[in-house]
Amino acid sequence: MAASNFSLLSSSCSMCNKLNPLLFSTQPRRRISLSRSYYIRFRNTRFTTVAGIADNGVFTSPEVAKAFDFTAEERIYKWWESQGYFKPNLERGGDPFVVSMPPPNVTGSLHMGHAMFVTLEDIMVRYNRMKGRPTLWLPGTDHAGIATQVSVPNIDIRVYGVAALLCPNLGFYHYYIAQLLFSAQTRVSDIAAFCTIMVLLYHSFRNYSSAMLHSATLPKLGFLRCCILRYYLPALSSYYSTPAVIILLLQLSSCYSCYYVTTVTTTLHLLLLLYSCYSAATVNACICYFCYSCNNCPAAATLLQLILLHASATLVVERMLAEEGIKRADMGREEFTKRVWTWKEKYGGTITNQIKRLGASCDWTRECFTLDAQLSRAVVEAFVRLHEKGLIYQGSYMVNWSPKLQTAVSDLEVEYSEETGALYHIKYRVAGGTRDDFLTIATTRPETLFGDTAIAVNPEDERYSKYIGKMAIVPMTYGRHVPIISDKYVDKDFGTGVLKISPGHDHNDYLLARKLGLPILNVMNKDGTLNEVAGLYCGLDRFEARKKLWSELEETGLAVKKEAYTMRVPRSQRGGEIIEPLVSKQWFVTMDSLAEKALHAVEKGELTIVPERFEKIYNHWLSNIKDWCISRQLWWGHRIPVWYIVGKKCEDEYIVARNNEEALEKAREKYGKDVEIYQDPDVLDTWFSSALWPFSTLGWPDVSAEDFKNFYPTSVLETGHDILFFWVARMVMMGIEFTGTVPFSHVYLHGLIRDSQGRKMSKSLGNVIDPLDTIKDYGTDALRFTLSLGTAGQDLNLSTERLTSTKAFTNKLWNGGKFVLQNLPPQSDLSAWTAIQDYKFDEEESLLKLPLPECWVVTKLHMLIDAVTMSYDKFFFGDVAREIYDFFWADFADWYIEASKARLYQGDDSVASVAQAVLLYVFGSILKLLHPFMPFVTEELWQSLPNRKEALIVSAWPSTSLPRQTESVKKFENLQALTRAIRNARAEYSVEPAKRISASIVANAEVIQYISKEKDVLALLSRLDLENVSFSQSPPGDASQSVHLVASEGLEAYLPLADMVDISAEMQRLSKRLAKMQTEYDGLMARLSSPSGQYLSIEYCEIFQLHSRNQIISVYLQFVEKAPEDIVRGVREKAAEAEEKVTLTRNRLAFLQSTTLMSNQAQ
């Protein structure tokens, strides 16, 4: 959290004492103290991790720590960084492995998308580093032009005077709302009306004091709030800024009661996340809400944490300016950019530090920022070269326009939402016709009719064929005529089948107009108000003009009807405002020739996309590519390197140069030494600089730069599949164009992270999981491992259950390390360590000499190394994670560690040394294989192992093609099958865990030979009496009185029943159990066979809460004919399960009875 938050908090808290009684109950109530010291404690416990150093150094051994301490992660990371392990080591030689990190926005904060790409890229980087390749993971951040500039508001100091004039008696509350509404360019009359509505709402709430909120009044209050959320707020959002709506809800929800605080807080959380309204105003209101909402409610506390976190990361510049009452336009470009640079230097490292928290082993000494001098030089050079080749041009075309931001925005920055609006039906009279000659047009945006240049109908629509070729009169334009034309593009079934063509304000109309040669008429200013083309409506906001126009159409009889209509509304990703399609003069890049080269790169195999199916998407987009609009009407970003001549038209006379001096020199050569020039005020699209990222970060355009020579082209580009064409394809095109080489050989695309129900993580759904919170609760390793389990290009369902399971895996790994360390000889026992080090597991001869369990686990390890190395190379990271997990948990921990105890606990050092050597070898190898996924816990464990000469992060990857003994795997699997069979029998007969039983093992001579050698292991794993375990090739004499087990083909066991249970007591228990089970089974069968349904209807009785027999029969007769199959099927399944249990129990009882009889006969 930024230190500047304290001033915000203190000022906000002082405001709370001045709030109008409108907002809060005047009755005494316990409040929360929000002192500076409280927030310091609050901040420290919520957002930071203690970074203390253990008394014994950087690392902590499992021998002294019960579990892995997540707080160790930060100090381990700092140690790695301090040792220089993240830098590429060119002395190793070999082909470098290079990854360019997708640059997150400098204004951003960590989310699961970041966690996903950091995890996957770090896995690649750590793996290749351990493979011995010079490895560079180059980090950086993007200047995020719109995301940064949107932080600066247009707040007019006159707001306070207007608000005070309109509502002098309403205090801070309406003062606050009026300020926000005025800043959203709302008319003064609307502010007054809005304040009136607020008063009415207040009176609806004022009678609900905390004393009155009992069970009778609570539903009323809840219903009123629900009405506000359901009906009032959505309508309000259409006309007022989202922060105003959020603050309204905050203020209304703060009054009187804590009963609904959790629900209201959840709603606020969703609104804030959905619209990213973390302005200073919203922060203040949320703090007030927290102060007055119910006794330190955890939900309210969570909300405040969210607000403070995002506020500190994204909107510091807004607070800086708002506190001074300064408008960006009044400040000027130079001062504004200076302020943003100041903010960037102070707070821009937030996202970087959060990425470090994920364990990213980037070379931070090479960290780049897209506005750095070197990268800016590359951007200018790219623009100049493209222009020199004729690939950049200026023209007026349709773009996505943001009236609030006053800039064009890319398709990526436009989000479409399903919203309920209106479909307006309007009469267009036919020129020269009668009163009955008119066309009815249905439109969702009637204000654009001033820009109509034609009316179109389908040529096959008989209703309008007689009007084709005539002229229509555009309503409210004083008789302006437009032609009525025909085109198959018109959908006869949509609306009335008549289409108004407004090419200046609709993408489809624009394309149609260009095809038909229609004029393009623009009726809107850049701020969303109507221009002089709209006549009397000039100067009105687009939405206000819509209301006024419809009203006057109704008065003139040209309005037919207005009906509710659900439509896809384009909204700005940043501000939430509705985007306006607008024809605007912009700079464009011609893409056809660039796209052709990028297509060939995939065709020739120079670029591989993983997974392969995304090649079709890549090819489709490049084959249908449009020219790229690269200019943005912002101040923050790369200034377009174009200069104009003072006194000349921009379209005709301009100069493209690398800097102002070069531009002036060119201008003087052409226009004389007294010429004056000025630079284009626009900046380049952020994606333009991002398209150069793989090579601009390595020194281009200086191709002699060391990093460019050593590390370009890069190896892998990893990112989300959703920006395959927005970013990846553009990098490929630019890389080939400027360097002649594809910038990377592989593209790895990950999927989306979804919630446990498979839903997309959405701010509106409130199912977003914060990575930092997850790290705090589960640890970084658990989060990384869970995220890695997905498949390339496939979405991953993330749940707390998965995270809990992975956290348990971390603990299992820690406990495994503890067991290994506790069973190693002291460092002072040189002879024991010499014996351990004499084992050479990479030699086949040594492997064959190992006992069966040791030979088995080493063989399985060597097979695992080969499998996961191949999967690593193929980018099958999910397979790697699962294979290592299964081997460690199922093979090493569950089987070998338990088997090793038979040697370790005998007290014979010569026997124990082989187990100690295998434990150390296998566990160390597991740490190496797992390190790219779980770097922190594996490094901590590695450092605790004896005789480690280097850090795990730079240790050598295990060799592949190591010797293996597959026969030992089959033999040990037989031993495992025998152990499982004995364990199952013990469980079936409820043998006490501590009780050791006898066993006779029957097999052929070959099997007996290797099984008998591991008698100690079998006895330990199966809880057998070592003195009473026998091996033979034929059944024992008491076989008839023993439990017979078939472990596998040719391997059987006989367990004397008398050793396992008290036969008489067991027979009594089974008899009672059998009687009960038989009764349950008979009841189920009766339900299925009863014609009256009286038994089956008991199911319905439970469902419908019916009690009398008549009710049951009545419901049955009504329901059984319609849909009884699901219930009947359920009863049949229960009956089949019950029958199986009855049969098993009866057979066991019969076996016990026969055993008793034979025993009596023998006596």
TrEMBL record:
Its EC number is 6.1.1.9. GO terms for cellular component: cytosol. GO terms for biological process: post-embryonic development; reproductive structure development; valyl-tRNA aminoacylation. Keywords: Aminoacyl-tRNA synthetase, ATP-binding, Coiled coil, Ligase, Nucleotide-binding, Protein biosynthesis. It catalyses: tRNA(Val) + L-valine + ATP = L-valyl-tRNA(Val) + AMP + diphosphate. It holds the Pfam family Anticodon_1. The keyword Iron does not apply. Residues 856-999 form the Methionyl/Valyl/Leucyl/Isoleucyl-tRNA synthetase anticodon-binding domain. Residues 76-152, 315-799 form the Aminoacyl-tRNA synthetase class Ia domain. The keyword Cell division does not apply. SUPFAM superfamilies: Anticodon-binding domain of a subclass of class I aminoacyl-tRNA synthetases, Nucleotidylyl transferase, ValRS/IleRS/LeuRS editing domain. GO terms for molecular function: aminoacyl-tRNA deacylase activity; ATP binding; valine-tRNA ligase activity. It is an enzyme of class 6 (ligase). Residues 1060-1087, 1128-1155 form a coiled coil. PANTHER family: VALINE--TRNA LIGASE, CHLOROPLASTIC_MITOCHONDRIAL 2, VALYL-TRNA SYNTHETASES. Belongs to the class-I aminoacyl-tRNA synthetase family. HAMAP family: Val_tRNA_synth_type1. This is valine--tRNA ligase.
